[in-house]
Amino acid sequence: MISPHSLRGILPRGSTLFVAVSGGKDSVALLHSLWRIRGELGIRIVAYYINLGIPTFSERSEEVVRSLSRDLGIPLVITDLERDFGFTVPEASRATDRKPCSVCGIVKRYLQNRVPRELGASAVATGHNADDFAKFALKDLYSGEALWLSKISRILASEDPLLLPKLRPLIHRTGEEILTYVEENDLPYVRERCPLAPRRDRFLEVVTVAEGIIPGFRKGLVRGAERLSKSLKPRTPPLVRCSICGEPSSTDPCSFCRLRMAVERKS
Ligand SMILES: [Zn+2]
């Protein structure tokens, strides 16, 4: 699933890579395939799970991640949003009137950087696949926002000393290829979709239709976007430090602290 040479030289030998695992097929395949090549790369891997407090779904996902990490002998770090930060994704969504997916995105971006960094990680890997990136590329072109276009890359270098580099080793793998890998290796994974996710994802539907007409469309689009991204300047606003938590952020307070404060105000 991941060839060691695609990651060679990116992480110094002896360094620690945190792997963000949600329990879904993509992150399960990511963890397993990195675990397989960790010796060759000379790195240590740690699984990282965030319990977002989504009733039933989060508990089931945590169980899958616990059992996989135990079976593979991979150390597992868990952040429980409610226990460690006093709120859940559904609560923050209600308190801010933001869609749960947008709240979840803020929480994951924040914690997947802060927690691994505080625990000595050199980088963090996520399981985004070709379907995800094809969708992001299309959405970006459509909206003209280019939030993602400049970031469609296997490796996203850090733009701040407090931001970890991000690896997306599955960027050129389709959802079907990943599912085949997970099934062939008999890996446990969460089959159901998040109950808070919207029922339809229209951009993903467009990508799927296009793939039916032009086989290889997703990989082609991602490769094209990746080439293009090298000549694009990332449109990220200058980063400041959040006056509450001290983390790098484009706003002060940061989006994560604002979620927390909104929940506190409501209760
Ligand atoms: Zn903050």
How would you describe this protein?
By secondary structure, this protein is an alpha/beta fold. It has one domain: HUPs (Rossmann fold), CATH 3.40.50. Helices cover about 45% and strands about 10% of the residues. The chain has ten helices and eight strands. The strands form two sheets. Strands 3-2-1-4-6-5 form a six-stranded mixed β-sheet, with helices on both faces. It has a two-stranded antiparallel ribbon with strand order 7-8. Helix 6 packs across helix 8. It starts with 15 loop residues before the first strand and ends with a helix. The structure holds zinc ion.
Question: How would the blueprint of this fold be written?
Answer:
Layout: E1 16-20, H1 25-41, E2 44-51, H2 57-72, E3 76-80, H3 81-85, H4 89-96, H5 100-118, E4 123-125, H6 130-143, E5 155-156, E6 166-167, H7 175-184, H8 202-213, H9 217-229, E7 240-241, E8 248-249, H10 255-266
Helix pairs in contact: 1-7, 4-5, 4-10, 6-8, 6-9
